Amino acid sequence: MLAFALELRNISKSYQHVNVLTNATLTVAPGSIHGLIGENGAGKSTLLQIAYGLIKADEGQVYVDGAKVDIMNPQQAITHGVGMLHQHVSWLEDASVLDNIILGDPVTSVFYQNSQQASKQLEQLRREFGFPFSLDTLINELNFSERQLVDVLRSLYRGVRVLVLDEPMALLSQEQESYLANLLTMLKMQGISVLIVSHKLASLHLLCDVISLLKSGQITETIEPKKVSLAHVTKLMVGREVILPHQNLPRYGINNTTAIEVKKLTVDSVSSGRKARGFPLLDSIDLTFYAGEIVAIAGLNGAGQELLLSVIAGYKAFNQGELVFLGNKNSANSGFNIKRMRKLGGGFIANPGLGLNLVDSMTMVESSFLGYQREYSGWLGLFNKRDLNDDCYKLMQQWQIKPMAPQMQTSLFSAGNKQKMVLAKETSRSPQVLLLDQPTQGVDISGVEMIYKALFKLRDEGCCILVCSNDLDEVISLSDKIVVISQGKVTAQVDTQSINKTSLGLLLANG
User: Measuring CA to CA, how many Å separate 7 from each of 24, 59, 148?
Assistant: First the structure.
């Protein structure tokens, strides 16, 4: 019998007296794709980070190809053939793909780093696996999906034998997700083992040879997905069958009360670089959104849907046109911003990948009231810390955020629990308008159910909700209407009841 490509044996880890992993054992077979699932806060990312040497286990051992190894840092992991694709990666934005990949390689000259051999090897790998960018492309010209692929190319260049991926599909469109799945299958055919964490259970069910369940810090089940249904996998993880709620039929707003009007709104084009465009990023957009409806703004990557949401939120500026937000008229030079948007009765949850919603270096209670500080300031501007802590704890209870520790540093919470806290913070204030970019990213299936129910409740109370999501199933499940954007223009507006996933995909593809 072949030795396991990777074995994490009896791993234990705790933070601030909170047990995250307890004698967890996971084995990954050679040349296989192994999925790791679990609810938010189960310890999945922690286990992966131990395998890559980013954090040290309190107890346990790591084996690679059957041999016990000490992995105290990422460099040692790389030496033993373990590579990792992280949820959040820092890049040298103004440097090329090549320079970012060879960063950290041994210097072979007294005066400079000779990249000729590396360039030759990387170009061969790029062609072999079909990576869709050149080595001289600047990182700041790549989208999120392409940056992930640069990370995969870097691991291949370093001789990876076990590739670990933490939520790689969270921010990908369906087309990008399909590309990544095909690439991982190619790696498997080359004998490379893949360990992947994702909350997209349907995708893992199709992709993986084996799926392990991490629950309460331990591996409790390992199954072959081809032998069980997707519903069975979901029930294993959550302990019950989860059927995501759909919108009630039909919805056309409350008394047609206008919440947002966008009139001839334009954002000028980018004039240079790989992302240069000969047309405006947003081109004379005319839209009206009503109280008591959920509208999904959909489009292919870079089509302009997320930019439109950011403009309406006051996060990004516009160059021409008018934005009427809850009766407040704003021109291009009126200085409309997030602060004013919130003061008028709006809420905004940015794309989690931007890192704008919470501050990792703060405690969760400190992060949870950012943007709403005045609500808790008393005499001489001092904060009522007891009220802050109590309110944060109540939100944690309501939204099942684990651990329920308001004073714990934000960075120690899982991505899904962070996202639930952001949703809890914004929805608890009963906004008149709520703007959401990728609202369920990194959230487990039971958390998604909770989010949907909260948004439907807000909508039924008269809130106007605008959503951007890369998940077409979510777009259809959550929205009453769909606005399709292509190349900065509105190309279609449809009632959700009149469309299915296939026809929506065609609308997006054909513009």
Answer: 10, 14, 25
